[in-house]
Amino acid sequence: MATLESNARNAAANGVAALLNSGTAVFETSADAEVGTCTFGATAFGNASSGVATANAITKDSDAAGGTIEHVSLYTSASAKVMECTCGTSGKEFTIGSLAINAGDEIDITELTLTMPAS
User: Which helix H or strand E contains 7, and what residues bound it?
Assistant: First the structure.
C-alpha cells in the first residue's frame, strides 16, 4: 500500500478543510432531519501539519430544532455535502454528552480536527 508523505497529507487535509470555509456542521437524525446546525468561519481550519488541520472557532447553534442525533454532516457554504461523520457519546468521530437534544437547546463544537492518514 502506498504511503503519503507529510506534504501530500497536508495538501489533502487543507483541500478538504477549504471546502468547509463558511460551511456548516449539521447534526441530523437517522432520517436526515436537522437537529441543529453549527457554522464554520470564513477560514474554517488552520493550515494542516503532519496531515492534521484544526478547526478555527465554530459558531454554536443557540436554538436547536431538537431531536435525536444519529450523525453529523459537513457541508460547503453552497450546501454541498462534503462528508458524513458518526456521532455518539463515546468512540465516534463526533462525541457529544447526549444524543437527545431538546428544541431550544444549545449545540457547541468546542474542538474539531480533520486528519488525512498516511495510508
Answer: helix 6-19
